[in-house]
Write a structure and sequence with these properties.
Length: 511
Amino acid sequence: MALSQATELLLASTVFCLVFWVVRAWQPWVPKGLKSPPGPWGWPLLGHVLTLGKNPHLVLARLSQRYGDVLQIRIGSTPVLVLSGLDTIRQALVQQGDDFKGRPDLYSFTLITDGHSMTFSPDSGPVWAARRRLAQNALNTFSIASDPASSSSCYLEDHVREEAEALISRLQEQMAEVGSFDPYNQVVLSVAKVIGAMCFGQRFPKESEEMISIIRNTHDFVESAISTNPVDFFPILQYFPTPALQRFKAFNQKFVQFLQKIIQEHYQDFDENSIQDITGALLKHCKKGSRANGSHIPREKIVSLINDIFGAGLDTVTTAISWSLMYLVKNPEKQRKIQEELDTVIGRARQPQLSDRLQLPYLEAFILEIFRHSSFVPFNLPRSTTRDTTLNGFYIPRKHFVFINQWQVNHDQKVWGDPFEFRPERFLTADGTAINKTLSEKVMIFGLGKRRCIGEVLAKWEIFLFLAILLQQLEFSVPAGVKVDLTPIYGLTMKHPRCEHVQARPRFSIK
């Protein structure tokens, strides 16, 4: 009897010690006068992975209402800081930008251009900063900068006007053949040709089967390059690859091989005295660049920069335009208001131009409301802290995972009043003649701070011009009785459910 009691006492003591050790391990040391961020209690080993479910942006937004704008969860055994609220996020990413500019070293990110991606790289030092500036300058030079050889205001305008006309022709062909179309499938090809022309000029294979196949399978990338991918938090899953992870690996390999082939062809006839595209600008810098300031790029690394520029320019713009078309057929009265504005300001004798933006405030307001209401980029790519820091009185150690909940910012009732109503008018000034700049700056879609999207201006201009040209010439609808589902499908960028019933009809005859 005494032996049995001793055994029970020893077992109870062992269990107590294990529980105490686990609790202490999950409550790291915090400097005096500070505190750890609050958060819900999670399951052992799993953390909050089951709690997050299929819509982590919604779950974390609800948790922020209880625990505040700075809260902490665990995914597996990894503590993750979750930031909500525009003021708190601005404090972290802008005022304390150097503290929060890191990127965690995730397994899934190492599969993107063999781990050399600038966007997904854990590096945030001087070499990364120099290469980011170089990519930004090359992108601007062959997108939003003036094109001396054209009457258009910039390279982007030339490319978009050409591809928008081609898109209109394809949509009319689809209408004549089958009477409807899937907007995403059509838009992604046009956007790919725009960013391809800026990256590669005439060398981009616009009609190749390989290009079309890759572009139409970008969802294989988007569904895995997410903030909450389990493979990044449970390393054992790397050895039991899921079908989604296998597709992710295969897509990245195919895309890199596709880019490498075009860049190699570009290099063979490269003329540094005649730079016509982003790849040419990077090749010229590669040839002349100095290693002293870290901005030199080995030629084999150019593919990683082009991958970042091409990928970001393709997915964000395609997603925004395809969401816009779905909202237009769901809200025909909004479409009519945009078209009335286009008819009044531009008429039908000429195409819309980028210089028309200030005179088309309702279209601009519509685009801002698409960004806000759909919040199709629910989270920034994960950040990490570069050193021990504090935020709102909470202690955040170095190399701490950080999620930025952009969806919460765009649906914060304190900011928007009626966040779940689709109401473009909210962004107009009282007289309806201009955009309310203060309110427009509260929409989060391209991030903030030192890792803000380098293609933000390009994306906004391209979305505007595509929509202006399309809506000037076409009226979009769905047949009577067809229900349009706008429930987002979670991913790096959230997509709408595919709809094959969208229709487009000419608004007037084009001579």
